[in-house]
Amino acid sequence: TCWYYKFGTVVLSEVPIVLYCSDEVHTKLKPQVDSISNDFQKHSTQEDNVQNTIFVGNLPNKTTLKDVKKLFGIFGPILNARLRGAVRKELKTPKKLAIIKREFHEDSNHINAYVKFKSFESCKSALIMNGELYEKHHLRVTLAEDEGKSDPKKSIFVGNLVFKIHDDDLWQAFEDCGPIDRIRIIRDQKTGIGKGFGYVNFKSTDAVELALKLDGIPILGRNVRVSRVTNDGRANPSVKKKKLKKIFSSDETKQKGKKVEKQIKPFRTKVKHEFQGQKTKPSIQKKAKKKKRFDKKKMVIKQIAEQMMSKRK
């Protein structure tokens, strides 16, 4: 026979406590029960925070909670709103305090918000604000639970960005390719400064094909890298490698390669002999060897003749 710890209305049936167990056993099991309870409560809190909540990105950093509620209050009753993602002027300053005091980094011009509605219908209606221009900022509005999700087939990876780049800089660079769904610049969690790369999510795959042609264009003085995105949300450099492999394996390229090789071959031969120094002709080398042998033989004969003359005397 056993019983179970009960927390509120939740019964933790996976951690039974035997009725006749000693205090020592009870003490050992209690931390396990408390741990499960804390995990459950944490999970429940996270679900409550995400439910009926939208994420609003790229708001001007001068935006207040009053402005946020006024902007999204037309879609239905708002339970609460929170400002997040502030790029602080000083890292020592807590983020919440930086928002209250409006102490932001000079290179930052944005802030994010979470808006929790009373109903899911209001939450869904507010998504129409995604991509809308507010105070010269293109807003990124998604469900809080879908904040980082996107279709890789409709996305491009943009690398080699300047660290102080803003969402609207990328928007301006790629808006001619087609309708943009959202832009996400990857930033450092502590500082909020960009890491030098980001993603542009379009509303169609045709826009992606056009955007890939902009590989190497300058944005704020740096030539950026543009490539496809894999299913796991990363850059796909293999696409470019496959294209290069296809180009160099074609018959036309092989024929051109042979022609170039014929043109280069004589030049290579000349260069090869230019740095080998001056070589003596083989015929001259043979004559020099013969001369040395003849001189040596002559000296030996002379020595023998001198010895014979000395004996006769």
TrEMBL record:
Family: Belongs to the RRM RBM34 family.
Alphabetized SMART domains for the sequence: RRM
One Pfam family this sequence matches: RRM_1
GO terms of molecular function: rRNA binding
Organism of provenance: Cuerna arida
Organism superkingdom: Eukaryota
The protein's name in its UniProt record: RRM domain-containing protein
Keyword set, alphabetical order: Nucleus, RNA-binding
Residue ranges of the region described as Disordered: 272-297
Keyword RNA-binding part of the UniProt annotation: yes
